[in-house]
Design goal:
mainly alpha
Amino acid sequence: MNTAKSRAAAYAPLFAYLLTLTISVVGSSYLSGRIWGIDIWNGAPGAPGAFSLLIFGLVVGACVWFLPYFGASRNTERSSASDRTYVFLSLVLLVLFILAFYLFRARTHFLGDGYTLLSLLAADNPLIKQREIGESLIHVWVKNIFGLSGEAGALKAFQIISISAGALYLAALSIAAGKLFENNIQRALFVVGIMCAGNAPLFFGYVENYSVFAVSVLLVTLMGALSLSDVVSRLWIIPALAFSIWLHALGVTLIPGVVYVLVRDTRLAQLLSNLALRWKLSLAAITLALFWSVFVYFYRTNIFFEAALLPIFQSRFTVEGYTLFSRAHLLDFANLLILLCPWALVALALFLSKQRKALFAEGHSQIVRFLVILSVSTVAAVFIFDPKIGMPRDWDLFSFAAIPVTVLFYFILL
């Protein structure tokens, strides 16, 4: 690669970051239309808030860009001393984040759903939703264990679970980062970057049944990456998947990634890889046909599927022409990605640059493939679900899809 191309490839992610920051600051001035993800991201009011965001973003960008150079001359190999330092830093981060979760906990209950959930949990016989049975039961158990009653007690139960889930989320990230990366700079950037993703508000005392589910999605993601790095047995991903599905029905979207982890490097995988191209295409066609047949059956016989999924063409449940490929839905979906993964342009720039060859280097390719499969399956599920009240406003449920995407981005970046 010549010098000009090398320089362009190196600066492409930085340019994408600055472009995202500019769009975010400019978008904060427009509080209507389908830019909810941009204007709500800039919560600080008025021009001073946007200007502060711009300055802060530029400082953060500069620090991230030059941080590796400060550590380049040091010994970055794993050592017992650096591991002890990392443990200490992780504990400090854990305490700081828990304090932040508590001190900046939600004072209101988003979109009014929280008030309904508080009333349901405060009832003598709380409602257990079958599609999120695990999350519902955990909230009931915490309420009973601590002897909480009334809506005030229900609020405390939600806050206890939300903040505890955030602590578990950070602890799992810290442990995994210590195993996946060799030096503390990479570990710290990985942990802090993922903790600041768009699903983080779930841990600030948020009143919804998704905080523990977010932890379970992260556990499946990290278990897959660690098993592909030969740190843990691949079988550990099975209970992590079962736990996620028990918590919420959308845990089934993690199955394709889990299958890849379990099947890779097996006789079945070798047999499939040795098949002729026409047999591979035939098997793929048969699998798609079976999947499509099951989907069509449930779509026609179960009204939940018809109401919950966005149709390709207008149906009896279509509101204002909101279909799968309508302009409004595509804008809402792009908006949701900006809200949950504001660095999506940076990831795209990195992948399109010449550096993408390094993503599939020996030892990394399997992890990248696993994270790509997991990201595609979860994001695709979010894409086909009908939000009813507008895609960005369901960020709390749909934010689970941002977890494997964020892990993928930071893994390939670091």
